[in-house]
């Protein structure tokens, strides 16, 4: 769309040829000069094209390098492993458990008692737990209730909650949260990458703009020096007053300063760009050793249809609300009375289940029922109220962020429309400035103008070109910001970066 701006260098070269054409050297020398400059210009173009093909850092490849090797991007990739670790930790609440207890007392050579009870516990969903154990007891001074058959006593039972803990408990809440964390951490990584790509993409386009400005001032200085040589020759031949050589020298000096400033800005921008360039061994690229150039055309970020609903920062509140709702259910469950029931079968020896009949079940069982209920429920009610307030706070924060993002994208779209309008005006200004310069050159050829006026027209053309390049930079920065608001800057990044040019 805006690639024609770089034709300014070519336009300045044409200006040089028009200026020289009105001079009065010998025809043979004029033809030699034209041939020399044409050959030199051709060789420079070929060399430049070869370098660009070999050492061009394209925008997509740049972002793919950032995504693959930048420390922040690597941290974002580690979040998925952290989510898996949390899920594994939550599953630990349902791990089968083997326990064993041995208790013995000897005194003055007498064994008072000896107990040994290995057991296996298997937690299940809905607060159910299966338990199996085998107990032995021996000794002189055993309590009657602790006496067991000589062969030992096997136990197989089940425990469950009928009040608090029936539908949700700490173990199930932790596991559900861990499942939400898996999505939440992935979204946290998207937030980090989205912010990283915004900074990296903006810096790339800044670097690209500074590079183009260097080329504009290089061409301007080259033209000024060629004019200076032509003026000196005209002054020697008596065709021009000596003051014109001072004017030509002043123009060269001014453009040398402008080029130095442009080079300084370009080097500074390249230094900032190198902050985003890393190798796969976690070593940052040395900006002083970078021998790369940006791609010629300005980047046109792909416009994404859709709203702000996919913005990762907005989605982050959804995950927080889901997590708090699980916490709310757990706190609400604490308002219920605690009623825990344990049912078990006993059997002499190591066989856990004896004959299957009702008489056996009635005569060989162990039952335990526990009940508790706080009278005021102060802690449970306070915890529940606190969780509800946190949910409301999170919902309000999400509403506020949604409104901010909506306003940002509206303002950003208005900025894009304004910048596009400015670019059209600058294109027209460029055309008019070009026409004025051409007319001034024609008048100069007829002896009705001066070198000062030609330089003034040319400086105006350079000024418009610089303004146009900077406005294009603002436009593309605004488009990248739009993608950032929508959360889709890295949507089309290649997964396999080419790092061969980062030597």
Form type: elongated
- Would you list the SSEs in sequence order as H and E? HHEHHEEEEHHEHEHEHH
Number of helices: 10
The poorly predicted ranges are 1-54
Could you say which structural class the secondary elements and strand pairing correspond to? alpha+beta
Q: How confident is the prediction overall: mean pLDDT?
A: 84
The radius of gyration over CA amounts to 41 Å
Extended strand count:
8
| Biggest sheet details | 6 strands, antiparallel
Strand order of the largest sheet: 2-3-4-5-7-8
The CATH architecture of the largest domain: Up-down Bundle
Quick one: CATH class of the largest domain? Mainly Alpha
Look up the CATH topology of the largest domain.
Outer membrane efflux proteins (OEP)
- CATH homologous superfamily of the largest domain, by name? Outer membrane efflux proteins (OEP)
Domain module tally:
2
What report would you give on this structure?
This protein is α+β, with helices and mostly antiparallel strands. It has 2 domains: 3-85 and 176-318 and 395-492, Outer membrane efflux proteins (OEP), CATH 1.20.1600; 96-161 and 338-372, no CATH class. The chain is built from 10 helices and 8 strands. The chain has helices at residues 8-21, 27-55, 59-69, 71-91, 170-237, 243-274, 312-333, 358-363, 378-445, 451-486; strands at 56-57, 97-107, 110-123, 129-138, 153-161, 293-294, 338-348, 365-372. A 6-stranded antiparallel β-sheet has the order 2-3-4-5-7-8. The chain has a two-stranded parallel sheet with strand order 1-6. Helix 5 (170-237) packs antiparallel against helix 6 (243-274). It is elongated. The protein starts with 7 loop residues before the first helix and ends in a 17-residue tail after the last helix. Residues 1-54 have low confidence and may be disordered.
